[in-house]
């Protein structure tokens, strides 16, 4: 297959927090993979910036080590790694002080695209924004990439948006949600808006319900301080699950263009109903199968923070009135599994009679651990003996059709970083979107706090609290995924 990758111009990318976990695990490996695909043109600089006092030589060694650790399969060629490291530089900068800024300014080229990746804790975002402007580093071709968490609630998100708006135009701010960079998430838009087949059925008349699961097997050990103040609602639902819901539920934008897409997503968030307390289940994992309990992981025996949330919500508009959306996410669950399932309604009348059983079309979009899309269709079970019906998957995984190279070729961070360099904000969240998502999330969290709600315990490596299953069963439905 002929590659149709759009070339990029020479750029400078500064990674604030360049020695941190995210930089080592995701950002640098992503840049290395883009370099291998010829997407880091000569003259481009990748500048690590952090507080540690390192030389560029020492930082290059750190980068080479990170590549070996996280993308060792493709970073085994020392010559390629060396060539990549030629682009890599390091400046010691204290975002909160005055050290290092002039050295950073001296590293930057005057006329190229300049991106600053804020891969530091959220407490440092404002200092960085102020520092960049104070030291004259912001020009028309400057972009900043801001990581989650984007605020802790509506008030803090608004304050952060206001602060960033003092130094940057909204068109320069890239709020990253790596779920939007996933191949299958974008494929979801291609499937919806590039085919005649799905869109006419994509509404409450034909869809029974939609469910989104983002399940992890990992616990919170090592991130306890952050997680204890966040919980699953803030850490996952407000951003990742909300973004997935938006892409599933939004109206077709007029163009695949940043503001057209983001306008439609915003309308979905604003159409969400307030979640009723009996339509939400919070959970917290307990010790099982050798794993410690959540409360041990965060070292707080009385913690009321949720490591699991399942909820039912409704998008109140003409398209979706009557079709519930169920969202579920949690840590220390049975499997690492992110998927969206669109469950279509029964046929209005079964000509095959009750003995044929109940069969429904389902469109399953698998995001993790493997990406792919499957459509279940009902057919006749082959062979004599009458009309027995069976559901078979029509597999739309692109790996099958387009080859494994395409499937494994790029990770979400690769795509999103390149979008920043190209100046394409389509897959990044706008200020009003983030605020609308907090405006929906805040009352739920405040309700828990006001009631002193205690999350339901669930065994580590199981399916979550029984109440989450009960919530579905009461409505005659059941969760997909997690090996069910
Ligand atoms: P980390 O603690 O591993 O690294 C933080 C980095 O920031 C270090 O390089 C440190 O030197 C630098 N830093 C801190 N204070 C600084 C200052 N005053 N001036 C200059 N540099 C400073 O953190 P991380 O896990 O890499 O996370 C970075 C950001 O990305 C956080 O906002 C986090 O919430 C977000 N994030 C991380 C992950 C992940 O998988 N690690 C995933 C999603 C989002």
From TrEMBL:
Pfam family of the protein (one): G6PD_N
Enzyme class per UniProt: oxidoreductase
Ranges of residues in domain Glucose-6-phosphate dehydrogenase C-terminal: 189-480
Reactions it catalyzes: D-glucose 6-phosphate + NADP(+) = 6-phospho-D-glucono-1,5-lactone + NADPH + H(+)
Residues at which substrate binds: 178, 182, 216, 235, 331
Classification via PROSITE patterns: G6P_DEHYDROGENASE
GO molecular function: glucose-6-phosphate dehydrogenase activity; NADP binding
Chain ranges of the Glucose-6-phosphate dehydrogenase NAD-binding domain: 14-187
Gene Ontology cellular-component terms listed: cytosol
Pathway(s): Carbohydrate degradation; pentose phosphate pathway; D-ribulose 5-phosphate from D-glucose 6-phosphate (oxidative stage): step 1/3
Catalytic residues, chain numbering: 240
GO biological process: glucose metabolic process; pentose-phosphate shunt, oxidative branch
Superkingdom of source: Bacteria
Listed PANTHER family: GLUCOSE-6-PHOSPHATE 1-DEHYDROGENASE, GLUCOSE-6-PHOSPHATE 1-DEHYDROGENASE G6PD
Described function: Catalyzes the oxidation of glucose 6-phosphate to 6-phosphogluconolactone.
Stated family: Belongs to the glucose-6-phosphate dehydrogenase family.
Name of the protein described by the UniProt record: Glucose-6-phosphate 1-dehydrogenase
Species in which this protein is naturally found: Shimia marina
Lineage: Bacteria, Pseudomonadati, Pseudomonadota, Alphaproteobacteria, Rhodobacterales
């Amino acid at each position: 297959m002929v590659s149709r990758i759009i070339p990029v111009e020479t750029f400078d990318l500064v990674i604030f927090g360049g020695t941190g976990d995210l930089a080592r695990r995701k950002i640098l490996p992503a840049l290395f993979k883009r370099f291998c695909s010829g997407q880091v043109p000569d003259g481009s600089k990748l500048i690590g910036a952090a507080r540690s006092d390192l030389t560029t030589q020492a930082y290059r060694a750190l980068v080479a080590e990170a590549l070996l650790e996280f993308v060792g399969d493709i970073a085994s060629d020392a010559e390629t790694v060396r060539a990549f490291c030629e682009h890599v530089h390091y400046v010691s900068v204290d975002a909160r002080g005055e050290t290092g800024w002039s050295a950073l300014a001296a590293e930057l080229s005057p006329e190229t695209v300049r991106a600053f990746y804020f891969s530091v804790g959220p407490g440092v975002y404002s200092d960085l924004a102020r520092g960049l402007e104070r030291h004259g580093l912001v020009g028309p071709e400057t972009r900043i990439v801001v990581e989650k968490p984007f605020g802790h609630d509506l008030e803090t998100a608004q304050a952060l948006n206001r602060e960033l708006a003092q130094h940057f135009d909204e068109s320069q701010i890239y709020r990253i949600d790596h779920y939007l960079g996933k191949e299958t998430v974008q494929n979801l838009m291609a499937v919806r808006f590039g085919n005649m087949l799905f869109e006419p059925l994509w509404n409450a008349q034909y869809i029974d319900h939609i469910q989104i699961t983002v399940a992890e097997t990992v616990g919170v050990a090592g991130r306890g301080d952050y997680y204890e103040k966040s919980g699953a609602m803030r850490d996952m639902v407000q951003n990742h699950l909300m973004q997935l819901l938006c892409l599933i539920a939004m109206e077709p934008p007029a163009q695949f263009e940043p503001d057209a897409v983001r306008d439609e997503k915003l309308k979905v968030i604003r159409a969400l109903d307030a979640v009723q307390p009996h339509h939400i289940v919070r959970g917290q994992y307990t010790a099982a199968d050798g794993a410690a309990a959540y409360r041990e992981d965060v070292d707080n025996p009385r913690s009321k923070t949720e490591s699991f949330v399942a909820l039912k919500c409704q998008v109140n508009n003409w398209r979706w009135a009557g079709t519930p959306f169920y969202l579920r996410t949690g840590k220390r669950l049975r499997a690492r599994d992110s998927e969206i399932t669109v469950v279509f309604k029964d046929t209005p009348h079964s000509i095959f009679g009750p003995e044929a059983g109940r069969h429904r079309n389902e469109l399953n979009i698998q995001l993790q651990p493997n990406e792919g899309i499957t459509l279940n269709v009902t057919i006749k079970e082959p062979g004599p003996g009458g009309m027995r019906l069976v559901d078979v998957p029509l597999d739309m995984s692109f790996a099958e059709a387009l080859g494994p190279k395409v499937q494994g070729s790029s990770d979400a961070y690769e795509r999103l970083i390149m979008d920043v360099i190209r100046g394409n904000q389509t897959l990044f969240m706008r200020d009003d979107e983030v605020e609308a998502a907090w405006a929906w999330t805040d009352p739920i969290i405040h309700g828990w706090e006001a009631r002193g709600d205690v999350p339901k315990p669930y065994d580590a490596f199981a399916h979550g609290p029984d109440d989450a299953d009960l919530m579905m069963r009461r409505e005659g439905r059941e969760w997909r995924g997690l090996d069910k």
